[in-house]
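Summary for the steering committee. One of the milestones for this cycle was to obtain a three-dimensional model of the protein with pyridoxal-5'-phosphate bound, which we needed before selecting residues for the alanine scan. The sequence and ligand used are listed below.
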Amino acid sequence: MIYQRSSALFSAAQKVIPGGVNSPVRAFKAVGGDPIFVKEAKGAYLYDEDGNRLIDYINSWGPMILGHAYPPVVNAVIEKAKKGTSFGMPTQIETKIAELAVSMVPNIDKIRFVNSGTEACMSAVRLARGYTKKDKIIKFAGCYHGHSDSFLIQAGSGAVTFGSPNSPGVTQGTAKDTLLARYNDIEQVERIINLNKGKIACIIVEPVAGNMGCIPPAKGFLEGLRSLCDTHNILLIFDEVMTGFRLAKGGVQELLGVNADIVTFGKVIGGGLPVGAFAARKEIMTYLAPEGPVYQAGTLSGNPLAMAAGLAMLTELNKNEKVFKSLAQKTEYLHKGIAEALHENGVIHTINRIGSMISVHFDKDPVIDFDSAAKGNNDTFKKFFHGMLEHGIYIAPSAFESWFITDALTYDDLDETIAAVHKVAKTL
Ligand SMILES: *Cc1c(COP(=O)(O)O)cnc(C)c1O
């Protein structure tokens, strides 16, 4: 395939945009080479600036769960745009999408809309701190909750349990309030809580991790968090920015039957427009301004175009519950095909999968947390990535990302993908 125009556009972009992109992962740093500039997309396919057609396994990192340019969503946005694109005043459509979201997701009474997953998680933590009147939070290494300061924290050195900044610009003062734990290690969480008795406001977790590959929770992990939170008066935040409206209508709370205190959303809930949201039971949400004292606001929050896209998307998912089953079946089919192709060619691998999330790791051991995800052979991943791209298959340009399956994929698309894996596997 030829990627000349993409490369030229990337050069031009780098002159006026830092690194040529508006979000780092897009720059292909982890795999090398120039990123591909997309021109348009329809259903399961991307069409790039060089005229190549690619089968898309990223789908805007999740939102395009029913395919690109999905007509009900596109039409809703067009019709809404004709009537004005922003007012900074209440609109009825905000109540409509809130009612629908609250009816689809278990265990929430009220929802507040924001503009990104980052904003949702940042606000959820502030709400948890305001509600519990405590400062510290626990997060898990390898879980991503957006780029707000409290989350850009890595494990501190040996003796200390608090984290240290993993980006310049994040202060030690902020870092000391974020405690780092290992995903799927409930004993460690308990130790951290006991060392910080009475100080922890919340535990924030991706209930199915999707930002270090796809890592489902070990048996009992989420239940363990729930019970520790209940015992120690800590709020449990499920970051369902990736999993919400993807793994089930009601997200992981429904799929795995564990309740969170606050849930955050993004990605699918916006149908491809910039939307995030956080939700909880009434007694927690009443702490939020203007009802309560915890401040949170947004000029474009609840924007009519964004709400129209989100409402159209949730409406489709709500009336067609079979879609989650169909997605899971396609993902399982893909899993089997990829595993067979890698196995036949003697490529060492581990594949993780749940619902419509899947990740391929080039390591023989189970991938259950950040350390085991980081152990994968990155050189093999790079070759795999570029090999797949050469065959017109677009997967995430980093070994630490899940693939997001869209229901627009046909079994022919999946067979084409599996055939590509067979060819690429021979070169690994
Ligand atoms: C994508 C993501 C976020 C951040 O959302 P943005 O809209 O990129 O700010 C937060 N949490 C999880 C689990 C995510 O996957």
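Key point for the committee: The mean pLDDT is 96.
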